[in-house]
Every structure is written in C-alpha cells, then in structure tokens.
Amino acid sequence: MKHFRRLLETALIILCAGTVLVACGSDEEPDDGTVKLPADFPSQIQVVDGAILTSSGESPRWQVTIQARAGDGNALTNAVAKLTDEGFTESSRVDEPASKSVLLSKDVDGKQLWVNVGLSADAAAGASTVIYQVSVAG
User: Fold this and answer.
1) Are 106 and 113 in contact (CB under 8 A)?
2) Please, are residues 66 and 45 in contact by the beta-carbon 8 Å criterion?
3) Of 1, 11, 99, 102, which has the highest C-beta tally within 10 A?
C-alpha cells in the first residue's frame, strides 16, 4: 500500500509540473499588461484619462472600465463633460448611494449612439472607477 501511495504521489507531482510548464511556455508575444479599447469602439466617445481595466464587446455593444486618475476630480462629472463636449445629450440620471450613472445619446450617421456611464460603490476604487456601457441602435 505504501508503494502504491508513493507511486500515486510521484505521478501527481509529475502531472502538476507538466501542467505548469505547458501553461508557462508559449509562442505568443508576452502580454505587457495594458488593456486597449476594442478596435471598433466608436471614435465619438471620448473616455476619461486613466488606466483601462477591462474592455470587451464588438459592434453594436461594448463595455469598458477605466480607473480614472484620482487627482483629476470627480470621475463621473469628468466623463459626462467629455461626452457632452462631443455633442451627447443627457437622457437620464441615477444618483443612489450604491451606484451613480448617466445615460447619454447622440445621432451618428442615422443611428443612435447610447452611452451609460457610471460609478459603482462595489468597484475596487469606487469613486474613480468609471464604467462605460455603449450601444448603437438603428
């Protein structure tokens, strides 16, 4: 029984080591850790300055999360200002303790571009983590 147990332990160690080697070895370029906006993200949407934490989607829907720079002031106010400066119109606003968001829209090439920009108290850096949800209708 001891012999079988040692054989089993050895096989498990070899299996784990092989998994680690396969996971670490790759022909791909190393990831530099930077996240970029999706390639087809609408150019009409100017996002706040900061580090892009997550970025996903493709036309007609995208979601982007940005860690805004803390020294730039209120992240939601800055995000809304950038959008209204680009011609977006505010449609509605939610201002609750757990979440704050603003829905904006703009006509672009006969289609309606909608942006819901918000903050979540659940986000790691709450007041400076801006979430963009974007969709094109029409």
Assistant:
1) yes
2) no
3) 102
Q: Is 138 helix (H, G, I), strand (E, B) or coil?
A: coil
The token duo for 28 is 């791909």
pTM value is: 0.73
* 87 vs 46: CA distance, rounded Å: 11
Angle at 60 between CA 57 and CA 64, to 5 degrees: 35
- Output the tens digit of pLDDT for each of the chain's 138 residues: 444 334 334 333 333 333 333 333 333 343 456 899 999 999 999 999 999 999 999 999 999 999 999 889 999 999 999 999 999 999 999 998 888 999 999 999 999 999 999 997 676 556 789 999 999 998
- The candidate with the shortest Cα–Cα distance to 119, out of 86, 82, 83, 77, is 77
